[in-house]
Amino acid sequence: MNNIICACGHENPEGTVLCGNCGRPLTKEAKDLKLADMRYEGSARRSQTYNKSIIDKIWNFFSSVKIGVTIIIMILVAAAIGTILPQVLYVPASTEADIAAYYERVYGTFGKIYYELGLSDLYGSWWFQTLIGMLGISLIVASLDRFIPLYNSLKKQRTRRHESFMKRQRLFALGESVGQETLTKSEAKLKELRYDVKREDGALLAEKGRFSRWGPYVNHVGLIIFLFGVMLRALPGFYVDETMWIREGETRAIPEAPGYYLESKDFILETYDKEQADEVFGDAIERVGTIASNYQTDVVLYKKPESALPGQTENLEEVKKESIQVNKPLKFDGFAVYQMDFRLDELKTMHFVLSNKATGESLGDLAIDLVNPETTYDLGNGSSVKLLGYYPDFSGFENGEPQTKSPVPNNPAFLVRMTTPETPKGETSFVAIKQTVEPLGENAYKLEFQNVDTRDVSGLTIRKDKTLWILALGGLIFMIGVAQGSYFNHRRIWIHETKDGQFAVAAHTNKNWFAIKKELDQVTEAAQLPLYKDQQDSESQELKKDGEKSS
Amino acid sequence: MTLVSISGNLLFVAFICYLIATLFFGGAVKGSKPETSDSEKRWGRIGIIVTIVGFIANLAYFITRWIAAGHAPVSNLFEFTTAFGMMVVGAFILIYFIYRTPSLGLFALPIAIIIIGFASMFPRDINPLIPALKSYWLTVHVITAALGEAILAISAVAGLIYLLKNVDVTKRSKQSFWLEAVMFTLVLTLGFVASTTTFSVMDYEAKFSYVDKEQKDQEITYNTPPIFGMNEYKALTPGTMTPLAEMPPLVNAKKLTTVTWSLLFGVVLYGLIRLIIRKPIAAVLKPFAQKANSQLMDEIGYRAVSIGFPVFTLGALIFAMIWAQEAWSRFWGWDPKEVWALITWLFYAAFLHLRLSRGWHGEKSAWLAVIGFIIIMFNLIAVNLIIAGLHSYA
Ligand code: HEM
Question: Keywords in UniProt for this one (chain B) (predicted)?
């Protein structure tokens, strides 16, 4: 390690640009600059110092802000491309083949290419996730690389800086002071402006808002915690995402929430009523048509007692009654249950009458529960109806066999054997809502469809997310850091008396030069300091000159 | 008068005040004296007073409409865009009291005026809230996000002034071309306002039936003469213009027609302006930016971003995530509107890093600020109108 020894005698680590003690520029480039580069106080950063091993190279790569910004821009562009067409998640198709077909059918060749390139699932792709990972690494490396040297050099600042440092500050003055006790007056004024003031034989350093310099690092830590939380979600057990359909009157186990049961009492759909809506909403309803005002499932949450056997669902203990609405999920034990979807008027029970075809005489009626049908319905008086087959979603015959599309009772059909005192051997019939087939020849009796009862079905989503608090913590830390860095500024003012009795004044801030100038104006006036110049703002100098000429 | 119509009138008052205030700010930067001289300060002072009066009327519009509707008036495109325009004025007032530069007002107010004018072209009735929007997070999230965007917009105004002052518009260069392109875009917005107003004054209506992409029969009403027809359209209103071309089911020909009319009106308007002034619009505006101090504009641009960025993060990302978790069971779903909020955020993060570590000050920084504003407007308008999603209002 080659330390650099400054003219003031201070030893600086290799890579230092401005002497940590007196502020003299140490490198050729720094000496050539009219204004000093004050980032990180000119201290030595690891990435500027080492470049030998492969580790150094990787470190340097990720610590570069150029790379960091490149990664940010790449994520930005990729994210934008993902919004050109809807992502797979929002496409009404589930199998790979259907999805591929959907993109081609709806969006043509462009859609096909978009799908084939994997852009339809862009945010889940390995390369997008890699970019996010690289962002995280870059954040960590760049922050460490800068924070440590910055912290060290701000901690051990010397009060008197060398003139070559002072004159390279953006706000700088050198000249006579007409007043007396210049430093004491400056100190008083600066203290009034809430600066911390340090004095050392003939030199003064006033500083405030140093903590704002940690803002970026605090906010990066917040981001890293957030990204860490997001990564955790990929591990099993941190994250539950289930859906359940529940019918009115039904009690069902909540998926992934062992021991918990939910009963749906009622599903409610409300719309705004044009008649009742005051004149305020009238126009909108007129224009749009019906507007829903509420989707709600009234539920009771139960818990199985500790002692209960597996599968046993009697003696459930009621936990709470609640109405789940959009924006008002049911919460319990870390879970949340959301109102997400519904189906209105699903068939519940079908009512039939068994009657004599010739006379029309009825032998009694029966109600078939379409979810849990019984095998035999005894009508008394020696008559009964037996279900030989049940086809909840009847879709037609195949090879003479009735088929069902799904287990949902959308179009129920039954194969029944009807027994009456007159026909003790029984007659077979196939009964659907609007159709009766008598496969084994003409019957004397028929099962006559009367009506149906319906009920609504609620689509609920069950979530448990153990990472939420990590994400919230990351967000909170980010906000603290970003407020700390944005709403406060680090300001420093150096004043010293030179050997020939003049005064040198310099000021620096990490942002908001306007405010530090105003403060420096006040100090200049109070202590009659020489007038400073903004060495970066040529225009205002010109303006001042113009003003002098015209006045 | 009902509360709703009072509210509408208040918005009109605000609109007029902003117009008048613009003239006063114009007075403050005209003439040969520096912006900071006494007589100029007087013009600037009247300008800011009129602006504040307008802003109070604007706030009163917002509050009365809130009371009338029973929910914060940020639930459709008209309401949201108007609120955004109002907050741009609010952000300008805030920044004005820090830096006291009339030139900022001369450019910020016209932009707010265009935004509010643009907003008024959308249906203005008060919607009852659908279940997904019934949450106080709607209020908190939208207002904070719009406020953040408005503060960020001020940085674009400062950037624009910087560019008008520092880009040599008499020379052909990339810079002068793009600067004029920004002016052209602003005129296009006026084209949209002009075409919509023209046809609504004419009470134009043409009804069509068509077949949508799911093969269902639908009906649609055009409020502009149909240049493009929907898929398999049939005219239901007799005596209206026959569309020049039929579009495939994927394309919303009605929106395409609206866009085309706006473009036509905008291009004609721009052509007329150029005919009258005989030089680029940027060249005409340049003298108005001449008095601004470049260094100060650069600083205001950065300051606005550093004030606006945390507010935007809080409103558009953090509050948005909290609400999404309550309403849709997930805090993030890669919905286009969410993604564009993220893109905006990443863009400004890149802006800050380029400035801080790569020394992108002055002109580069000014361009970035203008681009940032374009992204914000894209998210506000194009994503709502073109890219459908959960957030789509239209
Ligand atoms: C989306 C991700 C990021 C966000 C939101 C973010 C946010 C910020 C903010 C707000 C600042 C303060 C800026 C100012 O005060 O003007 C900052 C500073 C900084 N960021 Fe980031 N950052 C992100 C990613 C990165 C990455 C990937 C790097 C890696 C190269 C990085 C490196 C830095 C550095 C070096 C600073 C300056 C610190 C200083 O000078 O004190 N940031 N960041």
Answer: Cytochrome c-type biogenesis, Membrane, Transmembrane, Transmembrane helix
For tokens 């091993």, the residue is: A53
Q: Which of B7, B130, B136, B220 to mutate to test the interface with A (most CBs of A within 10 A)?
A: B130
User: Nearest residue CA, atom 18 of ligand 1?
Assistant: A216
User: How large is the average pLDDT for residues A368-372?
Assistant: 86
Q: Which of residues 244-273 of B touch A (CB under 8 A)?
A: 250
Residue contact A540–B310, C-beta within 8 A: no
Task: Check if A33 contacts B (Cβ < 8 Å).
Answer: no
Measured CA angle at A284 (ends A281, A288), to 5 deg: 140
> pLDDT digit string (tens) for A246-305?
888 888 888 888 888 888 888 888 888 766 666 677 777 777 777 888 889 998 998 888
Contact B303, A512 (CB under 8 A): yes
Q: CA A402 to CA A248: how far, in whole Å?
A: 29
SS3 content of chain A, % helix, strand, coil (to 5): 35, 30, 30
Contact indicator for A89, A71 with CB cutoff of 8 Å: no
Note whether ipTM > 0.85 here: yes
Residue among A159, A198, A156 nearest A43 (CA): A156
Number of other residues whose CB lies within 10 A of the CB of residue B203: 7
Query: Is A509 near ligand 1, meaning CB less than 6 Å away?
Result: no
SS3 A189: helix
* pLDDT tens per residue, range B163-186: 998 888 888 888 889 998 999 988
Amino acid at A455: R
The one-letter amino acid code at A15 reads G
Q: Which of B284, B288, B271, B200 is nearest to B23 (CA)?
A: B288
Find, in chain A, the residue whose alpha carbon is nearest to that of B379: A80
Q: Which CATH class is domain A166-209+492-548?
A: alpha beta
Interface of A with B in 260-279 (CB under 8 A): 272, 277, 279
A146 lines ligand 1 (CB under 6 A): yes
Q: Is the pTM of this model over 0.90?
A: no
Q: Are B312 and B345 in contact (CB under 8 A)?
A: yes
Q: Which amino acid is at B317?
A: L
Which of B300 and A42 is assigned the larger pLDDT? Answer: B300
Residue B232 CA to residue B251 CA, distance in Å, equals 12
Domain boundaries, chain A: 1-40, 45-153, 166-209+492-548, 212-230+466-488, 239-344+459-465, 348-455
Going by C-alpha positions, the residue among B285, B14, B339 that lies closest to residue B157 is B285
